[in-house]
Amino acid sequence: MHFLKLDFEGALLSSDSYNKSGIGEFIAPGEYRSPGWDTVVLINKYEIEKISQKSDQATVIVKYDVIGSLSNELTIKRQKKSYTFRFKREGQRWFMIEPYDLAQHISVSTADNVQDIVH
User: Fold this and answer.
1) CB neighbours of 18 closer than 8 A, spacing ≥ 6?
2) Residues of the chain below pLDDT 70
3) Looking at domain 2-118, which of 3.30.70, 3.40.50, 3.10.450, 3.30.450 is its CATH number?
4) Whole-prediction pTM value?
């Protein structure tokens, strides 16, 4: 899932990176709220646990290896957390329809780069 890779690399961190990444092409029109979270979730990795498809609908369960969160300060809270992503097919293309309000899940190296820019 290309969406997960782009999120991991920080494509949702700003409107500029969102627009440049093309990540909007994967999201059903009208389903996503624009980027601009105050907090991001730091992860080591993500993995797809399960994919199921029925006709023009699909579900993907993704497990994240969470380190913690970053806002004004770093909060360490290691855990495994799973989310269900739902997709619908329109013609030959698949679009994500849920979750549309999931905070960014970025890599530690992406967070380091952001911190370097901010400080």
Assistant:
1) 11, 12, 24, 34, 35
2) 1, 29-37, 100, 113-119
3) 3.10.450
4) 0.81
